[in-house]
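Intended use. Records like the one below are meant for learning the mapping from a protein sequence to its folded structure. Do not use them to infer anything beyond what is encoded.
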Amino acid sequence: MINRITKAKITKEKTIDGIEFSEKLLNKAKRDHKGVKCDWIAHKDLEEAFHALNPHVAHICELTGPLDEWNEAERFSDIEVSSFTVSGEDEYEGVTISAQRTLGSGLVMSLNTPFIRWDNDTYPFISELAQCVNALQEEIHLYYDGKQAPKRQLEMFAGDDLSTEISTVSDDEEKPKPKRKQKVVKLADTEQ
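Structure written out for the chain above:
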């Protein structure tokens, strides 16, 4: 039985990689699992749980204005959370979040929040952050238990032979060249 998910990463392909969790065994012993990878596509709820951390990354990394109030509707679409790590124990437990921010130039900047303890009194949205992390851990637990996105369209036909139905042009084959327009120049008749 999974008791505590401490780390996970969502890939560009929307699969979950590097899951770390611990489970308590019947004899009160604990077993840690590290680097568990799943090839299933993440369910929309799991993706949303990662996206819910976007505003926290923006606020913790001071990418926003003053922290007067929490704007839940603001989604910070230029930030994409890729992983989180919960570490420490008891009153020393907290979270670190990794994300990427797409800049106006199109370049991507990596962001890592500092370690934020749950008893932090300088970050005004610590309880909201804890709720988001708990929701994300629950979604990862459900994902690990089999909650996943519907299969991709071509995966539904995995056992079928599609080679006769799909035709592609390889790089070795010669592709037809587009016809060029020819310039037509009329020469005037000149008398000599």
